[in-house]
Amino acid sequence: MWRERALIILVFLLHLIHGEDACPSSSCGKISNISYPFRLKGDAKGCGLTGYELSCKNNIALFSLYSGTFHVQAINYNNFTIRVVDPGLQQTNCSSLPRYFFSPSNFTNSYQLIPPFHRYYRPKDSSLYQTIHWVDWYYRTEPLVYEHIVFLNCSHRVIGKLKYVDTDGCLNWESKGYIYAIAGDLIAEDFEVGCHVKLVSPTSWRGLDTNTYFYDMMHTALLYGFEHSWIPLACEGRCVDYYNCYFSSSSQTLECYNEEPLKPSWGLYVLVF
Ligand SMILES: *[C@@H]1O[C@H](CO)[C@@H](O)[C@H](O)[C@H]1NC(C)=O
Ligand SMILES: *[C@@H]1O[C@H](CO)[C@@H](O)[C@H](O)[C@H]1NC(C)=O
Ligand SMILES: *[C@@H]1O[C@H](CO)[C@@H](O)[C@H](O)[C@H]1NC(C)=O
Ligand SMILES: *[C@@H]1O[C@H](CO)[C@@H](O)[C@H](O)[C@H]1NC(C)=O
Ligand SMILES: *[C@@H]1O[C@H](CO)[C@@H](O)[C@H](O)[C@H]1NC(C)=O
Fold first, then answer.
1. C-alpha 204 to ligand 3 mean position (Å)
2. What residue intervals traverse the membrane (predicted)?
3. 133 CA to middle of ligand 5, Å?
4. pTM as predicted
């Protein structure tokens, strides 16, 4: 009897160490492989983690991040990323806009996922264009969000600033004001009095060239969506010091900075028994 019990505990511990469960994967629409740490609503208890629950609606997998619910585009278990797109965006409709506005407050309390913004902006007064600062986000992984698309409403036509891209008639929120989109960072020299940031949305699309100025391309970038990582979760128990764990883009695996990886040892199990 104690042997069986020990075996069950051992199997359980092995799962904990490897951070996986023995559940079959679930599927929803084009997301055919929903497995640990994710779970699909309705999956058996103990499958995946509750904070990583997807739901399935009209064959679209939905995932809640911060206070938004996003459409899942892809889950990649090799590099620990999930790519999501804002539900407000429609493929063939260049007038469609992201539903969610992103700001630093969205990331300060998120423990389980790396903030996708390697640079995020901190408006002291969100209505004041001049107070925007871009802050570097330091983390030993590749940035997941490469650029942002910033939508601005200006009281006048902006002349001589290439970065201010006309939305080519795609967007005209109200007849008053001029709507512009900017791909990439806002730096001091781009500031234009009379313009207000209306929307900031991230993208992980590497094809975005911030030196060509077409709204079309920005819309494509937004439709690609942005990536999120569960590396902090995957890093648990991997290295002696948790903060030494990082994803190496050259080896495409988790590695420990300045140390040997922790290997699950039998001694641990003996101790537990
Ligand atoms: C699904 O993901 C798991 C990793 O969680 C992997 O072992 C398995 O090969 C994947 N299956 C398919 C069909 O991609
Ligand atoms: C981000 O934070 C802002 C300000 O707190 C909030 O209005 C917005 O809904 C948040 N966005 C998401 C996607 O959670
Ligand atoms: C993760 O892998 C997917 C599929 O290969 C790729 O498209 C994506 O860019 C990768 N993300 C990162 C952060 O490496
Ligand atoms: C395109 O998107 C805009 C803004 O969301 C919406 O008002 C309009 O009805 C959409 N057009 C179509 C054809 O769906
Ligand atoms: C854009 O700005 C104009 C005046 O500068 C204002 O009347 C209008 O309501 C603004 N539109 C939006 C969508 O903020």
1. 9
2. none
3. 23
4. 0.78
